[in-house]
Amino acid sequence: MAIFKNNITHPEPVVPQHIAIIMDGNGRWAKRRGLPRTAGHKKGANNFRTIADYMNKIGVKYMTFYAFSTENWKRSKEEIEIIMDLFKDYLEEALDRFEETDMRMVFIGDRSVLKPELVALMDKIEAVSKDHKGAVVNMAINYGGRQEITAACKRIAQKVKDGVLDPDEIDEDLISANIFTAGQPDPDLIIRPSGEFRLSNFLIWQSAYSEFWFDNVMWPEFSTKDLDRAIRDYSNRQRRFGGVK
Ligand code: IPE
Ligand code: IPE
Ligand code: MG
Fold first, then answer.
1. Residue 107's domain spans which residues?
2. Ligand with minimal distance to 144 CA
3. Is 96 a domain residue?
Protein backbone atom coordinates (compact mmCIF):
# COMPACT_ATOMS: atom_id res chain seq x y z
CA MET A 1 0.00 0.00 0.00
CA ALA A 2 1.69 3.22 -1.13
CA ILE A 3 1.13 6.43 0.80
CA PHE A 4 0.90 9.62 -1.22
CA LYS A 5 1.75 13.19 -0.39
CA ASN A 6 -1.82 14.10 0.51
CA ASN A 7 -2.13 10.96 2.67
CA ILE A 8 -4.56 9.27 0.34
CA THR A 9 -3.59 5.67 -0.14
CA HIS A 10 -3.75 3.90 -3.43
CA PRO A 11 -3.34 0.13 -3.52
CA GLU A 12 -1.10 0.08 -6.55
CA PRO A 13 0.27 3.00 -8.58
CA VAL A 14 -1.63 3.21 -11.87
CA VAL A 15 0.82 2.92 -14.74
CA PRO A 16 -0.21 5.39 -17.45
CA GLN A 17 -0.88 3.82 -20.81
CA HIS A 18 1.02 6.58 -22.64
CA ILE A 19 3.85 8.67 -21.16
CA ALA A 20 5.50 11.45 -23.15
CA ILE A 21 8.77 13.06 -22.09
CA ILE A 22 10.40 16.35 -23.11
CA MET A 23 14.06 15.44 -22.71
CA ASP A 24 15.25 18.90 -21.68
CA GLY A 25 18.23 20.22 -19.73
CA ASN A 26 21.16 18.49 -21.39
CA GLY A 27 23.05 21.72 -22.04
CA ARG A 28 22.63 23.11 -18.53
CA TRP A 29 23.58 19.78 -16.97
CA ALA A 30 26.88 19.91 -18.89
CA LYS A 31 27.53 23.62 -18.36
CA ARG A 32 27.21 23.26 -14.59
CA ARG A 33 29.99 20.69 -14.72
CA GLY A 34 32.23 22.80 -16.93
CA LEU A 35 31.62 20.42 -19.83
CA PRO A 36 30.63 21.24 -23.42
CA ARG A 37 26.87 21.12 -24.14
CA THR A 38 27.48 18.12 -26.35
CA ALA A 39 28.57 16.07 -23.31
CA GLY A 40 25.08 16.70 -21.93
CA HIS A 41 23.50 15.40 -25.13
CA LYS A 42 25.58 12.24 -24.87
CA LYS A 43 24.54 11.63 -21.29
CA GLY A 44 20.94 12.51 -22.18
CA ALA A 45 20.92 9.94 -24.99
CA ASN A 46 22.11 7.27 -22.55
CA ASN A 47 19.40 8.21 -20.12
CA PHE A 48 16.83 7.81 -22.86
CA ARG A 49 17.90 4.15 -23.16
CA THR A 50 17.58 3.63 -19.40
CA ILE A 51 14.18 5.28 -19.05
CA ALA A 52 12.68 3.67 -22.18
CA ASP A 53 13.74 0.20 -20.97
CA TYR A 54 12.34 0.89 -17.53
CA MET A 55 9.00 2.12 -18.87
CA ASN A 56 8.74 -0.99 -21.01
CA LYS A 57 9.47 -3.13 -17.96
CA ILE A 58 6.77 -1.56 -15.81
CA GLY A 59 4.16 -1.90 -18.55
CA VAL A 60 3.89 1.50 -20.25
CA LYS A 61 2.33 0.67 -23.62
CA TYR A 62 3.11 3.90 -25.50
CA MET A 63 5.96 6.31 -24.94
CA THR A 64 6.90 9.46 -26.80
CA PHE A 65 10.28 11.17 -26.46
CA TYR A 66 10.92 14.71 -27.67
CA ALA A 67 14.46 14.59 -29.02
CA PHE A 68 14.70 17.45 -31.54
CA SER A 69 12.16 20.17 -32.29
CA THR A 70 11.44 22.10 -35.49
CA GLU A 71 12.86 25.11 -33.60
CA ASN A 72 16.13 23.41 -32.57
CA TRP A 73 17.66 24.22 -36.00
CA LYS A 74 18.36 27.66 -34.49
CA ARG A 75 21.33 26.13 -32.66
CA SER A 76 24.93 26.10 -33.86
CA LYS A 77 25.90 23.84 -36.73
CA GLU A 78 28.33 22.01 -34.43
CA GLU A 79 25.72 21.25 -31.79
CA ILE A 80 23.18 20.07 -34.37
CA GLU A 81 25.77 17.82 -35.97
CA ILE A 82 26.63 16.16 -32.66
CA ILE A 83 22.95 15.59 -31.90
CA MET A 84 22.39 14.05 -35.35
CA ASP A 85 25.46 11.82 -34.85
CA LEU A 86 24.02 10.64 -31.54
CA PHE A 87 20.74 9.77 -33.26
CA LYS A 88 22.69 7.78 -35.82
CA ASP A 89 24.63 5.89 -33.12
CA TYR A 90 21.44 5.07 -31.30
CA LEU A 91 19.59 3.99 -34.43
CA GLU A 92 22.42 1.69 -35.50
CA GLU A 93 22.46 0.12 -32.06
CA ALA A 94 18.65 -0.11 -32.00
CA LEU A 95 18.62 -1.88 -35.33
CA ASP A 96 20.70 -4.72 -33.81
CA ARG A 97 18.75 -4.72 -30.57
CA PHE A 98 15.34 -4.66 -32.23
CA GLU A 99 15.76 -8.28 -33.26
CA GLU A 100 15.66 -9.14 -29.55
CA THR A 101 13.06 -6.72 -28.26
CA ASP A 102 9.35 -6.61 -28.83
CA MET A 103 9.12 -2.80 -28.87
CA ARG A 104 7.81 -1.00 -31.94
CA MET A 105 9.60 2.18 -32.97
CA VAL A 106 7.86 5.05 -34.74
CA PHE A 107 9.50 8.32 -35.78
CA ILE A 108 7.34 11.39 -35.61
CA GLY A 109 8.32 14.67 -37.22
CA ASP A 110 9.28 15.91 -40.67
CA ARG A 111 12.09 13.67 -41.86
CA SER A 112 12.29 15.19 -45.35
CA VAL A 113 15.07 17.59 -44.35
CA LEU A 114 17.17 15.05 -42.41
CA LYS A 115 20.28 13.42 -43.84
CA PRO A 116 19.36 10.55 -46.20
CA GLU A 117 21.49 8.05 -44.22
CA LEU A 118 19.56 8.93 -41.06
CA VAL A 119 16.22 8.65 -42.85
CA ALA A 120 17.23 5.26 -44.27
CA LEU A 121 17.95 4.00 -40.75
CA MET A 122 14.64 5.38 -39.48
CA ASP A 123 12.72 3.69 -42.31
CA LYS A 124 14.54 0.42 -41.68
CA ILE A 125 13.86 0.39 -37.94
CA GLU A 126 10.19 1.15 -38.48
CA ALA A 127 9.95 -1.66 -41.02
CA VAL A 128 11.81 -4.19 -38.85
CA SER A 129 9.72 -3.44 -35.77
CA LYS A 130 6.33 -2.73 -37.34
CA ASP A 131 4.74 -6.05 -36.33
CA HIS A 132 6.21 -6.03 -32.83
CA LYS A 133 3.53 -6.38 -30.18
CA GLY A 134 5.34 -4.70 -27.26
CA ALA A 135 5.44 -1.03 -26.26
CA VAL A 136 5.28 1.61 -28.99
CA VAL A 137 8.20 4.06 -28.77
CA ASN A 138 7.61 7.32 -30.63
CA MET A 139 10.78 9.27 -31.18
CA ALA A 140 10.16 12.91 -32.09
CA ILE A 141 12.90 14.17 -34.39
CA ASN A 142 12.40 17.47 -36.22
CA TYR A 143 8.97 17.43 -34.63
CA GLY A 144 6.73 20.44 -34.11
CA GLY A 145 3.09 20.32 -33.05
CA ARG A 146 2.13 23.24 -35.26
CA GLN A 147 3.96 21.76 -38.22
CA GLU A 148 2.10 18.48 -37.63
CA ILE A 149 -1.32 20.16 -37.57
CA THR A 150 -0.48 22.35 -40.58
CA ALA A 151 0.51 19.27 -42.59
CA ALA A 152 -2.73 17.53 -41.58
CA CYS A 153 -4.75 20.58 -42.73
CA LYS A 154 -3.00 20.51 -46.10
CA ARG A 155 -3.71 16.80 -46.60
CA ILE A 156 -7.36 17.23 -45.68
CA ALA A 157 -7.75 20.34 -47.86
CA GLN A 158 -6.30 18.43 -50.80
CA LYS A 159 -8.94 15.69 -50.36
CA VAL A 160 -11.69 18.33 -50.39
CA LYS A 161 -10.16 19.85 -53.50
CA ASP A 162 -10.03 16.43 -55.16
CA GLY A 163 -13.72 15.99 -54.41
CA VAL A 164 -13.22 12.89 -52.22
CA LEU A 165 -14.07 14.59 -48.94
CA ASP A 166 -16.94 16.83 -47.92
CA PRO A 167 -16.01 19.64 -45.45
CA ASP A 168 -18.88 18.44 -43.24
CA GLU A 169 -16.99 15.18 -42.74
CA ILE A 170 -14.06 16.99 -41.08
CA ASP A 171 -14.18 16.16 -37.38
CA GLU A 172 -11.74 15.60 -34.50
CA ASP A 173 -11.30 11.94 -35.39
CA LEU A 174 -10.32 12.84 -38.92
CA ILE A 175 -7.68 15.26 -37.69
CA SER A 176 -6.36 12.67 -35.20
CA ALA A 177 -6.14 10.20 -38.08
CA ASN A 178 -4.02 12.64 -40.09
CA ILE A 179 -1.30 13.36 -37.55
CA PHE A 180 1.85 11.36 -36.81
CA THR A 181 0.35 9.52 -33.83
CA ALA A 182 -2.68 8.27 -35.80
CA GLY A 183 -4.24 5.21 -34.16
CA GLN A 184 -2.48 5.76 -30.82
CA PRO A 185 -4.06 6.91 -27.55
CA ASP A 186 -3.26 10.47 -26.45
CA PRO A 187 -0.56 10.83 -23.77
CA ASP A 188 -1.91 10.36 -20.25
CA LEU A 189 1.12 11.95 -18.65
CA ILE A 190 3.59 14.47 -20.07
CA ILE A 191 6.83 14.88 -18.14
CA ARG A 192 9.23 17.79 -18.50
CA PRO A 193 12.40 17.90 -16.44
CA SER A 194 14.80 20.89 -16.25
CA GLY A 195 12.50 23.31 -14.45
CA GLU A 196 10.81 24.75 -17.54
CA PHE A 197 7.05 24.98 -17.48
CA ARG A 198 6.08 24.88 -21.13
CA LEU A 199 5.29 22.51 -23.97
CA SER A 200 7.67 24.04 -26.53
CA ASN A 201 5.47 22.94 -29.44
CA PHE A 202 5.23 19.31 -28.27
CA LEU A 203 2.07 17.24 -28.94
CA ILE A 204 -0.19 20.29 -28.87
CA TRP A 205 -3.18 18.47 -30.39
CA GLN A 206 -2.69 15.26 -28.40
CA SER A 207 -2.17 16.97 -25.01
CA ALA A 208 -5.70 18.43 -24.75
CA TYR A 209 -6.43 16.32 -21.64
CA SER A 210 -2.96 15.14 -20.61
CA GLU A 211 -1.75 15.36 -17.04
CA PHE A 212 1.55 17.20 -16.52
CA TRP A 213 4.57 16.60 -14.32
CA PHE A 214 7.37 19.14 -14.11
CA ASP A 215 10.62 18.28 -12.37
CA ASN A 216 13.62 20.51 -11.60
CA VAL A 217 16.18 17.80 -12.26
CA MET A 218 17.98 17.99 -15.64
CA TRP A 219 17.19 15.23 -18.15
CA PRO A 220 20.62 13.48 -17.95
CA GLU A 221 19.94 12.93 -14.23
CA PHE A 222 16.23 12.16 -14.41
CA SER A 223 16.15 8.69 -12.81
CA THR A 224 13.74 5.78 -12.60
CA LYS A 225 13.00 7.00 -9.04
CA ASP A 226 11.99 10.41 -10.42
CA LEU A 227 9.75 8.62 -12.90
CA ASP A 228 8.19 6.53 -10.11
CA ARG A 229 7.44 9.75 -8.25
CA ALA A 230 5.68 11.20 -11.29
CA ILE A 231 3.64 8.01 -11.73
CA ARG A 232 2.69 7.92 -8.04
CA ASP A 233 1.46 11.49 -8.23
CA TYR A 234 -0.43 10.74 -11.45
CA SER A 235 -2.07 7.72 -9.80
CA ASN A 236 -3.54 9.99 -7.22
CA ARG A 237 -5.16 12.48 -9.55
CA GLN A 238 -8.74 12.59 -10.65
CA ARG A 239 -9.20 13.05 -14.36
CA ARG A 240 -12.59 14.46 -15.20
CA PHE A 241 -12.38 15.28 -18.92
CA GLY A 242 -14.90 18.05 -18.39
CA GLY A 243 -17.39 15.83 -16.58
CA VAL A 244 -18.30 15.58 -12.89
CA LYS A 245 -17.09 12.83 -10.56
C1 IPE B 1 17.40 19.14 -24.70
O2 IPE B 1 18.36 19.76 -23.93
C3 IPE B 1 17.96 18.53 -25.97
C4 IPE B 1 17.53 19.21 -27.19
C5 IPE B 1 16.71 20.22 -27.27
C6 IPE B 1 18.07 18.71 -28.44
P7 IPE B 1 18.84 21.25 -24.21
O8 IPE B 1 19.95 21.18 -25.22
O9 IPE B 1 17.70 22.10 -24.60
O10 IPE B 1 19.41 21.66 -22.83
P11 IPE B 1 19.25 23.08 -22.12
O12 IPE B 1 17.78 23.35 -22.04
O13 IPE B 1 19.97 24.08 -22.96
O14 IPE B 1 19.85 22.88 -20.78
C1 IPE C 1 12.30 21.32 -26.20
O2 IPE C 1 13.38 21.83 -25.53
C3 IPE C 1 12.75 20.39 -27.28
C4 IPE C 1 13.40 19.16 -26.84
C5 IPE C 1 13.66 18.82 -25.62
C6 IPE C 1 13.79 18.26 -27.88
P7 IPE C 1 14.02 23.24 -25.90
O8 IPE C 1 15.18 23.44 -24.99
O9 IPE C 1 14.26 23.32 -27.35
O10 IPE C 1 12.83 24.23 -25.54
P11 IPE C 1 12.84 25.78 -25.15
O12 IPE C 1 13.63 26.51 -26.21
O13 IPE C 1 13.49 25.89 -23.81
O14 IPE C 1 11.41 26.17 -25.10
MG1 MG D 1 16.39 23.19 -23.51
1. 15-144+186-233
2. 2
3. yes
**Is 3 contained in some domain?**
no
**DSSP 8-state class, residue 165:** -
Q: How far apart are CA 151 and CA 128, in angstroms?
A: 26
Whole-structure pTM value: 0.95
Residue 175 near residue 148, CB atoms below 8 Å:
no
Report if residue 175 sits inside a domain. Answer: no
The answer to whether the CB of 141 is under 6 A from ligand 1 is no
pLDDT, tens digit, 9 for 90 and up, residues 207-235 = 999 999 999 999 999 999 999 999 999 99
Contact status, residue 74 vs residue 30, Cβ threshold 8 Å: no
- Residue 216 is given by DSSP the state S
Q: Residue 136: enclosing H or E segment and its boundaries?
A: strand 136-143
109 lines ligand 1 (CB under 6 A): no
- Residue 150 CA: distances (Å) to CA of 57, 165, 200: 35, 18, 16
Q: What is the pLDDT of residue 11?
A: 65
CATH number at residue 101: 3.40.1180.10
Count of domains in the chain?
1
